[in-house]
Amino acid sequence: MRIERYEKIFMALTLVVLLAALAAIGVGVFAAEVHLPAPAGRVDPRQIRRTAPFDQPGVREVAPGEYEAVIIARAWAFEPNEIRVPRGSTVRFRVASADVIHGFLVENTNINVMVIPGQVAEVAARFDRPGEYVFLCHEYCGFGHHQMFGKVIVE
Amino acid sequence: MVESALKLERARYERSALVEWLTTVDHKKIGILYFWSSLAFLLIGGLLALLIRTQLIVPDNTFLGPQTYNEVFTMHGTIMIFLVVMPLNAAFFNFFVPLMIGARDVAFPRLNAFSYWAFLFGSLLLLSSFLFGAAPDGGWFGYANLTSSRLYSPGLNIDFWVMGLQVLGVATLASALNFFVTIVNMRAPGMSLMRMPVFVWMTLVTAVLILLAFPSLTVGLVMIMFDRYFGTNFFNPAAGGDPVIWQHLFWIFGHPEVYILILPPMGMISEILPTFSRKPLFGYTFVVFAGIVIAFLSFGVWAHHMFAVGLGPVPNAVFATTTMLIAIPTGVKIFNWLGTLWGGAIEMKTALLFAASFIAMFTIGGISGVMHASVPVDYWQTDSYFVVAHFHYVLFGGSLLAIMAAIYYWFPKMFGRMLDERLGKLHFWLTLIGFNLTFFPMHFLGVDGMPRRVFTYSADMGWDLWNLVASIGAYLLGASTLLLFVNMLTTLRKPADAPADPWDGRTLEWAIPSPPPAHNFDVVPVVRGRDAFWIEKYGAEEVVGPAPERHGAESGHNPHNPHNAGSGDEAGHGSSAGHGQSAHIHLPPPSWFPLTTAAGLTLMGAGMVVHATESLASLGFPIVGLGIAMVVVSLLGWTFEPIHEESHA
After folding, report:
1. DSSP state of B541
2. Quick one: pLDDT at residue B9?
3. What does the similarity note say (chain B) (predicted)?
């Protein structure tokens, strides 16, 4: 089969672009340690309110400047829907669903994870700038999907 | 020739026009049925899109309530994918694949009719949900466990969705088998695989994709049905089920589905660009193999819809890689189309304008697609309006623009009338401007963080301006679509005077009159190379293979100009009608059984929906039983139906 010279050139070009993109992923994942959400445990949705740590949803300090926020996502609200942390703190969110699939996205951070019933989603971010960071459910979950949001207040 | 064929038919079946259409097994009539039904559904789906854009035109709007909004966006997606783009592709498969390969019909004409009726009735079952105020509201992706649980999705909404899609799935699978067998077995002598028009190639590839992908959807839908009706717990995490399984099953169907929607339009583009550039397709082999490679890779990329699920770094990295790989064959195709236009004697017809705009718009959609492939970037974009912008550039800017091109290109062949070019160009520019006005701002909205599938947004989010622009664009698109209908309907009132070969075409469908006679070809054509008809008209520039031998006396009778090219003259008709072969053309007789089988199948689905009601639940299973009986009796009748051989002499 005869291959035109131009075809060879643009095949080579596409290959180069792709290899560069692949290299970028590799560097991102392994060198820069981009956080990829992975299930951090399982929780029975029926027992969620009796299972630690979800029996006490809320935010607590685990070390100086480090906070853990335990959030229950349910149709159609987050519990709690307001979290206050001081500026410069790192917050580790542990989110689980009490019913259907929800999403958890915090604006202006890299946090974007699906909250699968049965799984605990664990994601973290550092909040350096004071202000309000809206977090919302972005996975369609039925009638009240649009009103399912809350905020992180950084003081 | 047309007259004699018609007389033959009329003598055999003294039937009304309505009965003729209901019982037809002619691939061209079935293609026309697909064409008009899916265009009608396009109007419905478009209307729903306008409702969505009207709701979002200002912040805090209360035009639609949240429940209505959810139903509207679910049905918009489901209709546009299953009831518009797929059947519009099927309309062109049906009408043109047999013509392009020089066949008289598809391999299984009655199965073909069954596919159409099952498609129509399944669509009507799905749409009838509006009449009961229970339109599906789970999104076109129907994520379990929202959809699989009667606790979270009470009502008939999801039942209509599951049953409608099951019937549509049967129709699609039957159609895919039919076209696979047709293309493999029924090509004219000399039409080797690598001489087939690219549209035929892409139809073949799409048929394989459908055969491998749709069973996965069927299995998933059966599991949802069992969870809802019979208390199984496939997707119920409280009982040890896992809702993520649905996502895997759905997307291993869902991603090939994207290529099922785009590969046939790519084939159309590969026919239209060479015709209006008066050049052969640049890199035919590459375009064909790129299509095959895309189809193969499409089964290895589904988890890129699930990066936010939390599958872990390794699966995410693997699926990111395979997703990026798809960019290679796609990029090759884009360069090949540009290479086809390069240096060609380009004729700026409406069909070419649409085809050329397809390349540009599809490229934008392809680039944002590669952006999604990168996992860290995807976290930004998942479930935001950026994704909405991306797939509308692929499915509207890609599939639908190509289908518009195909409508302008093939309308004369289907209906014997040329669409108005001036209205067509107006339609084109309005579409292109309206489309970009609607969907380009959605990139900005997505980057600004506007999530998908929310029925309204508050005024302090800063999303007002681009939403307003998008809505204005949507109204423009609506107006432009009406122009297409005005153009088609006024054209249909004119006399059928289109020449057989209005565009100086390259493929075999242009070798026969417009519209083609019932038996397509008086004499089965002999193919000497790619662009078979072009070679017959102008000779080949490069060396083409020898023509395969024909049997008997026919081989001496001008074998290479067999099909009255461009002739409206009586002499051409007379000579071909007197030709030895046309007297023995066997046309399959019409049949009621495809229609009744499809009706029985749909009745089964409708019975399941009835079973889920509160007041009429006891009627449900009897209706299902009635449907089964109808299917069984129809299939028996189908099997033992006489073939009327004697009436063809």
Report:
1. S
2. 56
3. Belongs to the heme-copper respiratory oxidase family.
